[in-house]
Structure formats: structure tokens, C-alpha cells
Design a protein that fits this description.
Layout lengths: L1 H16 L3 E4 L10 E5 L1 H4 L1 H19 L2 H21 L4 E2 L7 E2 L7 H22 E3 L2 H23 L7 H9 L3 H10 L2 E3 L13
Antiparallel strand pairs: 1-2, 3-4, 5-6
The protein binds zinc ion (ZN).
Length: about 210
């Protein structure tokens, strides 16, 4: 959970330090475009994303010696950049300081964004719900509450009438993202991995 959101966990810290900047559009064409990202090379350039991925995978491997897990942690971290690449306007730098900024701007269309992001969310949810089973009430209800919480945040973002008031307010709000990995860790400890019918082998983890 921490891996795919890592870049957005770091971003508010860099905002508060004044190393990166965000601009608020008081009259955005749609709520997904309320923020502009003039500078976020340390959290959101492709090169930095790869660096964070290597670092996260290395820390995970050092702690667990679980190679496949470390590999997927790295892929998870860098996947954030490629998913942002699909949704963001061309504001993502390839390397810090470079003028080349990329992005496919899915956010230009509110309906297309909701359909695509909704489908990705549903697919992830389906995979997790299918490969794990609640062992107790926490495993069931803390998971359900987590999903409801994510949907509520999404709805608040997608349909919020007014953008956040300042860069610092955005940073403080985004810092609440640190709650998510701990919350997920909590209910995941109360769920078991179930073997699913697969062509080669069942889902397994040490
Ligand atoms: Zn991001």
C-alpha cells in the first residue's frame, strides 16, 4: 500500500520544506484540474521515481530478504509515475531540472477520469478481495471502512466545489495519506491469503 502512494507521501513533505511547489487554480475547468504542478522534481520526476523505487525495494529487501516482494515494491513505487503520466497534464519532468514535461491529461475529461480510475480501483479491489479472506471482524470491517474512506475522499476531490485555500493547506491535507498504509497493514494482518485457481500455482506468500 505504501509503495504505490510513496511519491504522494513524500510530496507534501517537500511542499512544507519549500523544495516543491503547487499552484491553485481558483476557477478550474473541472475539479481534477484545481491544482497545477509547476515544480515537483524530487517527488515526481521519472528519474527520482526510479530512485525512490530502488531505495524502497532495497530497504524492503534488507528487512525481509524476500526478493519477489522487493521487486514488486519497486514496481509499485514507479507505477505511481506512469499512472500519474496518464492522468496529469504535461507537468511531469523526466529528470529534475529538465524542460521536458509529459502527461496524457486524462484529467481534462471528468467523465473519462471517473470511468478509468473507477475501473482501476475496482480491479485492484477485486484482486485483493479475491485473494484474501477475513479471519475476524477487523479483517472484514476495517477493510470495508478503508474502501468507503477511499471512495469518500475520491468523491470529495471529484465533486468538491472549491479548491483548498493554500499550498500549506494542501500539504497538510495530503499528509493524511500517511494513514493509509498503516490502516491497510492493520486489516491485512487480520486477513488470510487464500489459494486461488491459477494455471500454474496458487497465491502464496512467506
Ligand atoms: Zn502523484
Amino acid at each position: 500500500m505504501a509503495a504505490p502512494v510513496l511519491l504522494d507521501l513524500l510530496w507534501p513533505i517537500f511542499l512544507l520544506l519549500g523544495w516543491e511547489h503547487v499552484r491553485i487554480d481558483p476557477n478550474p475547468p473541472n475539479p481534477f484540474l484545481a491544482l497545477a504542478f509547476p515544480s515537483y522534481p524530487i517527488s515526481h520526476s521519472l528519474l527520482a521515481a526510479v530512485g525512490w523505487a530502488v531505495l524502497a525495494a532495497g530497504v524492503y529487501w534488507a528487512a525481509t530478504r524476500y526478493r519477489a516482494g522487493a521487486l514488486w515494491i519497486g514496481i509499485g513505487v514507479v507505477s505511481h509515475w506512469f499512472l500519474d503520466f496518464v492522468t496529469h497534464r504535461p507537468d511531469l519532468p523526466l529528470v529534475p531540472g529538465s524542460g521536458t514535461r509529459v502527461g496524457l491529461a486524462l484529467w481534462n475529461s471528468l467523465p473519462a477520469t471517473v470511468v478509468v480510475e473507477g475501473a482501476v480501483f475496482a480491479a485492484g479491489l477485486w484482486l485483493y478481495a479475491r485473494t484474501t479472506r477475513a479471519r475476524d471482524r477487523i479483517g472484514r470491517w476495517a477493510f470495508v471502512a478503508f474502501v468507503v474512506f477511499l471512495l469518500a475522499i475520491y468523491a470529495a476531490n471529484a465533486f468538491s466545489p472549491s479548491p483548498p485555500p493554500s499550498e500549506r493547506a494542501i500539504a497538510r491535507l495530503t499528509l493524511s495519506g500517511w494513514l493509509l498504509p498503516f490502516w491497510a497493514y492493520w486489516f491485512d494482518r487480520h486477513r488470510d491469503v487464500v489459494a486461488v485457481a491459477a494455471p500454474s500455482e496458487g497465491a502464496r506468500r512467506p
